[in-house]
Amino acid sequence: MDKVFKALADDTRRRLLDRLHEDNGQTLGELCARIAMTRQSVTQHLGVLEAANLVSTVWRGREKLHYLNPVPLHEIQERWIDKFESPRLRVLGAVKRRAEEAMTDKPTFVYVTYIESTPEKVWDALTDADLTAAYWGHSNVSDWRPGSRWEHVRTDGSGIADVVGTVVESERPTRLVTTWAAPDEEGQEDRHSRVTFDIRQHAEIVRLTVTHEDLADESERADVSSGWPAVLSNLKSLLETGHVVPQEPWLMPAH
């Protein structure tokens, strides 16, 4: 138990456990891509977690996969939490969550589509300026490195960007996170929303999940709720058939 408490005392090791909770069975390279730290340092932290039995490993060919082992955490809960005021703590936790949600929660829109393609082709369709111009009516322009600026530029030759933002995470071909803002609000971070593209392969298809969060209000959520399905339907058509749908889907009347 001492090793478990020691392992949990470090913020980096807690973040590694969070990453495995989100997506269990990751390689060292996949974990390093989400942690701003050298491979050697991440390896040392994983060693501490393995010694505490919080992480177990399995070899798949030449890849070493890391899995979260929740058993020690369950033992802590049984020994230190369940027998001490567990019902009261659950009530207090629920009150805290509701209070936090009331104070900070902003509308979020999530859309999932399945595409007969590969993660690499879907990634390119989201980031290549020419491909986005073909199905979106705008070119997404950036070098797509974390921290870089990106622009959603009109294709009419004006060079006008209707949306700008920053690349937060860029893990080709599985995950892209960017902020979104109107050009005149670029310096007002509290006005920015955030879009996450999660790309997962299953056999010969890809599941693309788009999460647009930190929206200003329900009116903005309604706008993106009609915009994203139209854009992603056009993307799906382009990748599966080689051409976009005959009419621009975002121009179709809502009713």
TrEMBL record:
Protein name, UniProt field: SRPBCC domain-containing protein
UniProt-listed Pfam families: AHSA1, HTH_20
Start and end residues of each HTH arsR-type domain: 1-88
CDD domains: HTH_ARSR (cd00090), SRPBCC_CalC_Aha1-like_GntR-HTH (cd08893)
InterPro entries for this protein: ArsR-like_HTH, ASHA1/2-like_C, HTH_ArsR_DNA-bd_dom
